[in-house]
C-alpha cells in the first residue's frame, strides 16, 4: 500500500513538475512579450513626441509667416489710405485747375499716375490679404491637429 501511495505521489510530483515547467515557459514568454511591448510603446512615444515637436516647429514658422503677412497687410492698408488721400487731393487740384483753366494737362497726368499707383497697391494688398487668410487657415489646421494629439495622449494615459 505504501508503494502504491508512493507511486501515486511520485506521479503527482511528476505532473506538478511538468505543470510547473509549462507555467515557467508561459511566464518567460509573457515576460518576453511584455518587454517587447514596452520597447514598442517607448518607440511609439518617441515617434509621437518627435511628431509633436515637428508640428510645434511648423506652428511657430506659420505663426511667424502670419505675423509677417499681417504686418505687410497693415503697411499696404496704410499706403492704400495715403494714396487715396493723395488721389482725393489730386482730384481736388484737378477740379481747381479745370475751373482756373491752368495746367489742366499736368493735373490730369498726375491724377492718372496716382490712380495707376493706387490700382497697383490695391491689387498687391488683395494678394497679401489672401495670403494672410491662407496662413490663418493653416494655423487653425495645426491647432486642430494638436488638440487631437492631446486627446490621443489622454486616451493612452487612461488605457494604461
Give a concise summary.
The chain is built from two helices and no strands. The protein starts with a helix and ends with a helix.
Explain what you see.
2% of the residues are buried. Helices cover 97% and strands 0% of the residues. Helix 1 (2-100) packs antiparallel against helix 2. It has 160 residues and is mostly helical. The protein has helices spanning 2-100, 104-159. The longest helix has 99 residues, at 2-100. The protein starts with a helix and ends with a helix. The model has no long low-confidence stretch (mean pLDDT 86).
General shape: rod-shaped
* Average pLDDT for all residues: 86
* Classification by helices and strands: mainly alpha
Write down the secondary-structure element order. Answer: HH
Query: How large is the count of helical segments?
Result: 2
Family: Belongs to the ENTR1 family.
InterPro entries: ENTR1
GO biological process, one term: positive regulation of protein localization to cilium
Protein name: Endosome-associated-trafficking regulator 1
Considering the chains and any ligands shown, give keywords for the structure.
97% helix, 160 residues, mainly alpha
